[in-house]
C-alpha cells in the first residue's frame, strides 16, 4: 500500500484490537501463511504473480481499492480515501472475473428496508451534489439548442479499470473515436479525467486530436450538472456512468464496468454470462454504496455509514491540506506544463 495511504488503511483494516502490519509481498505471504490469515493488497502495487503465489501457498487475498464516495480531492493528488472496498473474491473493476460486488448484484435478496434506505441515500447524494471527488463548482458549458448532445467521459489510459474492464477499448483516443461512430450526428463534449488534467496520470489528448472526433472540450463545468443537461452520457468504465444512473440519466457503456449488464445501461460490449439479472437503480445503489464499501468519518476517524460520508463531503469536513498534497500538486503542474510545451514545439 502507498505510504501516504497507510494511516487511513490502519483504520479501515483495524479488527478491534490492532491494525495489520505493512510488509513487502513475499514477507506478507509468508506471515499470512504462518498465521493462517489473509493478505490485503492494493492490486496495482503488487507483482502480477501475487495471485498465483498466494494460491500456491494457500493464502487468501483481499483486494483493497478506493470506494465510490471517496474524498473531496484526487487520489492521484494524495488525498486519503474516506471509503474503501475490501473484496475477497476479485475486485469490482475486473470484468474478466467475479467479484464480491458482482455476486451481491447477481444474487442478493434486497429487502424492502434496504431498498428504501438506498433510495433515500441516492436522493441525499443527488441533493448534496456529491460525486466521487465531492461537491463541485464551476461555470456550465453552453449547449447548442436543437441538437442531440452527448458527453464522452475520458479516463486514465493505464488505469486497471480500463485494462480489465474496458472490453478491448484501447485508451481515450480509441474510446472517443467509438463514441463518434456510435453518435455520428451528435454534438459531442469530451471531458478529460481530472487526474489526467492535473498532470498526474496518462491519457492526455491534444485539443487538435480531440476535436477530430468531438465538437467541444470541457473540464470546468460542474460534472453532474453537465451529465444531467446532455441527452446521453458515454463512458468506457468510468464511475461517472454510475453517478449518472443515480440521477436518472441515459448511459451508454463501451466497456463492462460493475453497473453494466443489469438492464440499466445501453451496453455496446458483450456482457458477462454472470450478469443479466434485471435490477433497478436503488438495488444497484444498495450494493455499491451500502453493502460493499467501508467508510471512515474524516472528522472522528471512526467507522460510519454512507449517509454521514455524504454529509461530510457536502460540508467540506475532510482532512486539511498537507505539505505532501501541495508537493504533489506542484509536480502535476510541472508535468502538465512539459506535456503542453512538447505539443507546442511539435506543432
From TrEMBL:
- Show the InterPro entries listed in the entry: Capsule_polysaccharide_synth
Q: Which domain of life is it from?
A: Bacteria
The record's section on Pfam families has:
Capsule_synth
One GO BP on record is: polysaccharide biosynthetic process
Q: What is this protein called?
A: Capsule polysaccharide export protein KpsC/LpsZ
Could you tell me which species this protein originates from? Sphingobium scionense
Amino acid at each position: 500500500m502507498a505510504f501516504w495511504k497507510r494511516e487511513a488503511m490502519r483504520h479501515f483494516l483495524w479488527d478491534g484490537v490492532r491494525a495489520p502490519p505493512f510488509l513487502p509481498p513475499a514477507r506478507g505471504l509468508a506471515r499470512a501463511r504462518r498465521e493462517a490469515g489473509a493478505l490485503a493488497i492494493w492490486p496495482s502495487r503488487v507483482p502480477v504473480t501475487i495471485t498465483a503465489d498466494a494460491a500456491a501457498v494457500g493464502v487468501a487475498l483481499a483486494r483493497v481499492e478506493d470506494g465510490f464516495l471517496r474524498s473531496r480531492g484526487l487520489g492521484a493528488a494524495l488525498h486519503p480515501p474516506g471509503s474503501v472496498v475490501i473484496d475477497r473474491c476479485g475486485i469490482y473493476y475486473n470484468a474478466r472475473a467475479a467479484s464480491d460486488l458482482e455476486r451481491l448484484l447477481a444474487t442478493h435478496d434486497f429487502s424492502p428496508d434496504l431498498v428504501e434506505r438506498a433510495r433515500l441515500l441516492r436522493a441525499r447524494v443527488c441533493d448534496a451534489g456529491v460525486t466521487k471527488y465531492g461537491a463541485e463548482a464551476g461555470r456550465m458549458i453552453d449547449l447548442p439548442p436543437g441538437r442531440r448532445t452527448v458527453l464522452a467521459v475520458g479516463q486514465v489510459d493505464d488505469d486497471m479499470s480500463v485494462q480489465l474492464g474496458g472490453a478491448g477499448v484501447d485508451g481515450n483516443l480509441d474510446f472517443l473515436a467509438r463514441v463518434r461512430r456510435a453518435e455520428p450526428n451528435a454534438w459531442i463534449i469530451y471531458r478529460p479525467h481530472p487526474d489526467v488534467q492535473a498532470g498526474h496520470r496518462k491519457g492526455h489528448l491534444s485539443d487538435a486530436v480531440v476535436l477530430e472526433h468531438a465538437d467541444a472540450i470541457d473540464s470546468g463545468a460542474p460534472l453532474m450538472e453537465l451529465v444531467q443537461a446532455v441527452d446521453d452520457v458515454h463512458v468506457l468504465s468510468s464511475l461517472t456512468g454510475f453517478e449518472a444512473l443515480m440521477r436518472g440519466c441515459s448511459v451508454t457503456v463501451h466497456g463492462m464496468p460493475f453497473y453494466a449488464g443489469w438492464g440499466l445501461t445501453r451496453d455496446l460490449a458483450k456482457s458477462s454470462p454472470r450478469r443479466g439479472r434485471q435490477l433497478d437503480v436503488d438495488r444497484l445503489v444498495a450494493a455499491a454504496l451500502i453493502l460493499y464499501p467501508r467508510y471512515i468519518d474524516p472528522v472522528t476517524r471512526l467507522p460510519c455509514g454512507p449517509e454521514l460520508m455524504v454529509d461530510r463531503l457536502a460540508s467540506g469536513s475532510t482532512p486539511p491540506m498537507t505539505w505532501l498534497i501541495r508537493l504533489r500538486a506542484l509536480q502535476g503542474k510541472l508535468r502538465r506544463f512539459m506535456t503542453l510545451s512538447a505539443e507546442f514545439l511539435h506543432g
